[in-house]
Amino acid sequence: MKKLILLQSLLLLASMIYSQHRVAIYDVERPVGSSSMLDNVSSYMVGFYSNDDRFIVIDKANSQLVKDEQDRQKSEEFIDGYIVQQGAQEGFDYLFYPKYFKKDKILTVKVYDVAKGTSIASQSVELKTSLLGLPKELKLKVNRLVDKINSKCFNLRYEIVRCIDKKKKSDAKELLFALGYNQKAREDAEFEIYQMITETVGGKKIERKEVIGMGKIDEVQDENFSVLKVAKGGEAIMTALNNQIKLYGTLKQ
Fold this sequence. Notes:
- With 253 residues, the protein is α+β, with helices and mostly antiparallel strands.
- Helices cover 31% and strands 35% of the residues.
- The strands form two sheets. A six-stranded antiparallel beta barrel has the order 6-7-10-9-8-11.
- It is globular.
- The N and C termini lie far apart (52 Å).
- The N terminus is likely disordered.
C-alpha cells in the first residue's frame, strides 16, 4: 500500500513538472533615447512568471545577440529563425521577446514556440508617458500584457470558482477567484468578469470574450485563491454560475 501511494505521488509530481512551460525572457529592445526605466520590463515579466507555478523561468536572455544579428541581417524571418535557434540550443519551450516602439509608445511582446520553430503570437499594450518621457504605471501595464499573453498564447485563464456569499440567491456579492500570490494577485486590483462565447462566422467557429460584470480583489487568501468583491453585474454573474457557465477574470484595461 505504501509503495502504491509513493508511486502515485511520484506520478503526480512528474505530471506537474512536465506540464510546466520552460520559458526564457529576453532583455527588452528599446531605441536609443528612450527611458532606461523600460529595462525593468523584462525583470517584471521574469518576476511574474517565476511566481507562477505553471512556468519555469530558466534565464533572462541577452537581446544584444539578436540586435547584432539585426545589424547584419534585416530580414524579420531570419531574426525569428535566429531567436528560435537560440532557444533550441538552450532547451527552452518558449521565448518572449519584448520590444518598445518609441514613436507609437507601444510595448510589444512576441512569443516563440521553440518546438514549432515559429512565432505563435504577438501582444501589445500602449504605454502612456509623463512630460519627462517616463512610462506611467509600467509594472501594471506589464502585468496586463502578461495576462493577455497567457490568455491568447497559452489559453490560460483565471477562473471564477464559485459564489461565496449566498445570502442573496439572485445577486452575487463575493466570489472565490483562482488567483493568488503565485499569480501576483494584489488587493484592490480591479477585474473584468467575463464568459467565452462561441460565434459562427463564415462557417468557422470563433471564440470571443463577453464581459458581464466587474469586481475588485478584497482579500488574497493564499498562493492560489482570492476573494473577489463584485462591483457590477451581480445578477448576471449569479445566473451564469447557476447555469454552470464558466466565468473568468482579467485585469481591467
